[in-house]
Design a protein that fits this description.
Number of strands: 13
Oligomer: single chain
Radius of gyration: 48 Å
Order of helices and strands: HHHHEEHEHEEEEEHHEHEEEE
Shape: rod-shaped
Strand content: 15-25%
Helix content: 55-70%
Largest sheet: 5 strands, mixed
Low-confidence stretches: 322-328
Structural class: alpha+beta
Length: about 325
């Protein structure tokens, strides 16, 4: 039964019952009947009251019978409200977890966007300083700890110059672009104040695109030490006819240089390439071209004494071999 039909039905039912009650009260009043020893007039009033109560009772009962929502609201509302309150309390930690998860998702999305920007910049060739790239390498040895602040300022200033000319080419380096965290500066000062010789490398903390305003950086500190002595044999390569037939002599020498670089890096060198004396390279090629039946043992010999941050310079020395015997 719809709401309007129920209202119309209740109005008609109330009208019928009230009319019936009024007639019943009038008849009782005319008949001068008495209930519970009441006067006839009061008896008529009582009958009218009972009839009104009956109308209300029938109306409420009918509405409860035909309307489930009203029935639930009258008899189950308190229980429902208590249950809702309990559910809300249970949702509080879940909402907190959802908020935390949303924050993590937002952070991850920002990182993805930044990564996408970095990849896009790489593809467009706009990245002028890569993450972790050196902005300058400096040898530091402090005899007086009072000079540590000035020494660090000089390091940052020179790194700033190197970064500025890469990020803003053609402009005058007139402001501080390189930013280093204070705790990193404090840690750097603590390390280099022990009067030993250190190598300080200022590295970029992220990819830097052409025209950016700031370059965030961090210091890397390595104890300076000797890597190779002058005239030291660093590595060797045995080259025979079979190797040369399957791989060019130039490639064999490249393999020697690669093993040499790997060896000095293992010792702690910061060098990224090996410098070779050109005359010694030509000498190896001349020996091979003059007699291609010879087997060669090529040595990589250090030209200079080099420390951690120094370049590695070598010359090549060949020994001709025949029947597994070396001939200088």
């Amino acid at each position: 039964m719809t709401g309007w039909r129920l209202i119309i039905f209740l109005l008609l039912l109330g009208g019928v019952l009230s009319t019936f009650g009024d007639l019943l009260g009038s008849r009782i009043g005319k008949a001068r009947l008495s209930i519970f020893k009441l006067r006839p007039r009061r008896t008529a009033v009582l009958i009218t009251i009972l009839t009104g109560s009956l109308i209300s009772g029938i109306s409420i009962s009918l509405m409860i019978f035909v309307n489930e929502k009203l029935r639930i609201g009258l008899f189950e509302l308190d229980d429902i409200q208590a249950e809702l309150k309990e559910k809300r309390e249970e949702l509080i930690p879940l909402n907190k977890q959802r908020e935390d998860l949303q924050l993590k998702i937002d952070k991850a999305e920002k990182e993805i966007i930044n990564m996408s920007k970095g990849i896009s910049a790489f593809r467009k060739g706009e990245v002028v300083i890569a993450s972790g790239q050196s902005l300058g390498t400096f040898n530091v040895r402090l005899l007086e700890t009072s000079n540590v602040k000035q020494e660090i300022e000089n390091i940052i200033r020179r790194a700033n110059f190197n970064a500025f000319i890469r990020v803003s080419p053609g402009k005058i380096p007139d402001r501080r672009m390189v930013l280093v965290r204070r705790d990193h500066i404090a840690n750097l000062a603590k390390i280099i104040s022990d009067k030993r010789e250190w190598v300080v490398i200022i590295r970029s903390a992220a990819n830097v695109i052409l025209g950016e305003t700031y370059v965030y950086a961090f210091p890397e500190v390595i104890l300076n030490k000797n890597i190779v002595k002058k005239g030291e044999l660093i590595s060797s390569e045995n080259i025979n006819n079979f190797d040369i037939k399957n791989n060019s002599l130039e490639q064999q020498i490249k393999n020697l240089l690669a093993s040499t670089l790997a060896e000095v890096k293992r010792r702690g060198s910061l060098a990224t390439e090996i410098q070779v004396e050109s005359d010694s390279m030509q000498n190896i090629l001349s020996i091979y071209n003059s007699n291609k039946n010879l087997n060669l043992k090529v040595d990589a010999i250090s030209q200079l004494e080099s420390d951690t941050a120094d370049k590695i310079s070598i010359f090549l020395r060949s020994n001709e071999t025949k029947n597994n015997l070396y001939i200088d």
